[in-house]
Amino acid sequence: TDLAASGLDLSADFYLAIAQEDNYPYKDQDGVAVDQLAMDRPVVDLIDLIVGQTATLTVYNVKPYSLIIPLRSSSKGITQTAYGTLNLATPFDNLGILAADATGVAQTQFNVPHLANGMTLFIQVLEVSGLTARFSNVIIEKVTK
Asked: Rounded to whole angstroms, how far apart are CA atoms 32 and 19?
């Protein structure tokens, strides 16, 4: 089943459960097959958000050579933009512009300042490629010591 065609709201984070039901009386006739599970949006990941360390922001599943704009807010919310619904509250700020490589991955590193200790960051990425734009998942990370 194509989830995008199901009418479900896929704009925010969600969980997908795949389960098996034992409804056949014979040993190996039950089962689950999953084929081509794909997310049709950029996926952002942030690691090492630790005071005094170098954090790494990586964006996957984007079109090769597209422009990637990481956005940051101090709270989650809904903001309507020219590109669609952003799941960050205003004010939000732009963390720069990245370029995806030939494999559809963009990455940047930054130092985590001491003043950020204890802050919770909400980060979402905008991918711009030609005349199309897509938002990523939202990540919520707390800066630790």
From this structure: 7
Q: Work out the number of other CB atoms within 10 angstroms of the CB of residue 11.
A: 15
- Residues 42-98 have pLDDT tens digits of 999 999 999 999 999 999 999 999 999 999 999 989 999 999 999 999 999 998 999
Q: b/e per residue, 27-63, with b = 16+ CB within 10 A?
A: eeeeeeeeeeeeeebbebebeebebeeebebebbbbb
* Model pLDDT, residue 40: 77
Local structure of residue 118 (DSSP, 8 states):
T
Gap between the Cα atoms of 123 and 76, Å rounded: 9
Reported pTM = 0.73
Ramachandran quadrant class, 20 (left: phi over 0; alpha: psi -120 to 50; beta: rest)? beta
* pLDDT of 5 above 70: no
Locate the DSSP E strands across the chain.
43-47, 54-60, 67-73, 79-81, 84-86, 92-94, 98-99, 106-111, 120-129, 132-135, 139-142
